[in-house]
């Protein structure tokens, strides 16, 4: 029975607690939050009987805790992971893993030095449609990817950025490019199996006056094999539209699900390749539905990794890649030029200070609140 704690009793913590409650071989033994009352309220809400701690240090010093779900604001992911690792706790950290590559490298180094497991949440990878899409791409039926388009178009009201850690480069690290689209950026890296070689990005803040960070970005990606990509990240788009579209040599596959394939007529105009569409659709439909999806998949995997040594689905080294891509996008947007990857440790953008120094502060943030009244969140 793995003894688990939740660090940070805010909006996402309920998803972790509910998921752990579905997993037989773990037990929630502590919830911690700097706001002890908030932690106690979560304990009561979920009918837990466990310890409540009011600081990271007290949780780290709790000898009865083996593994911690870090559900803190992004600026605290690295310091918390490093402190918990030093105390011998296994760490599962919420997305984004951290705001900068420097912090991520420190987290991985701390985990390696302490011999603990470091996992990172990217729950949308573990959904049936993504796994099926990956299966079709990896089958090779459609040929090499020529062009990829990813849309991560969300909407958040102006007051969303009133929360004190949001809306500043220093504490949120960035806007939707880092914090919302990280799900789709991770999906892009996972599905393509590699990072682009060069990026160009344009960013703006169009609708969030109490925030110094971007609320929209459009980026162009170029891969080493000349494949190209378009990535759009936004919190100003009404509705919530997410798109993955892979245009390959012989056919195309998208989510929301669609497969197309064209053959050439003698004059170069297209005719449908119904046979290929049927074959690729059969591969997609033939892949089994996951028995469970999202957070619970990763939390169960982490518990099994701690208890039985199972390999982590997403460890801190693999989770570095999407943040590297996002780092290049910020560098491009604020330098006004194309940026080549990888980002080296000597690069000014390797640490957050470089981004903070160079990023455009779109507005001055003047209002900070500690928390919102309870309301549902969408993942
Ligand atoms: N995977 C997803 O889909 C998803 C969705 C929402 C949020 N998140 C991520 O989860 C993390 C937390 O987001 P949230 O929306 O729950 O934020 P939140 O502000 O609602 O909760 C954060 C909690 O951390 C606590 N806290 C702050 N400083 C602390 C400290 N020093 N010690 C202990 N507790 C402290 C706060 O009191 C608060 O209760 C972020 O990284 C966010 O990006 C992930």
Biggest sheet overview: 8 strands, mixed
Q: Tell me roughly what share of residues is in helical segments.
A: 25-40%
Separate helix tally: 13
Quickly count the domains. 2
CATH architectural type of the largest domain: 2-Layer Sandwich
Summarize the SSE layout with pairings.
Layout: E1 2-7, H1 13-21, E2 26-32, H2 36-45, E3 51-53, H3 56-60, E4 67-70, H4 77-86, E5 90-93, H5 101-114, E6 118-120, H6 128-139, E7 145-155, H7 169-172, H8 176-179, H9 182-192, E8 198-204, E9 216-222, E10 228-234, E11 236-248, E12 252-255, E13 258-260, E14 262-264, E15 270-272, H10 274-286, H11 295-308, H12 320-335, E16 339-340, H13 352-358
Parallel strand pairs: 1-2, 1-4, 2-3, 4-5, 5-6, 7-10
Antiparallel strand pairs: 7-11, 8-9, 8-16, 9-10, 11-12, 12-13, 14-15
Bound molecules: nicotinamide-adenine-dinucleotide.
Nicotinamide-adenine-dinucleotide (NAD) binds at residues 8-12, 32-35, 38, 55-56, 71-74, 76, 94-95, 121, 123, 163, 179, 377, 379.
How is this structure best described in words?
Helix 6 packs across helix 10 (274-286). The mean pLDDT is 97. This protein is α/β, with parallel strands linked by helices. The chain is globular and about 75 Å long. The protein has 13 helices and 16 strands. The chain has two domains: 2-124 and 293-314, NAD(P)-binding Rossmann-like Domain (Rossmann fold); 125-290 and 322-358, Dihydrodipicolinate Reductase, domain 2 (2-Layer Sandwich). The protein starts with a strand and ends in a 21-residue tail after the last helix. Bound molecules: nicotinamide-adenine-dinucleotide. The site of nicotinamide-adenine-dinucleotide (NAD) has 25 residues, from loops. Nicotinamide-adenine-dinucleotide (NAD) is lined by residues 8-12, 32-35, 38, 55-56, 71-74, 76, 94-95, 121, 123, 163, 179, 377, 379.
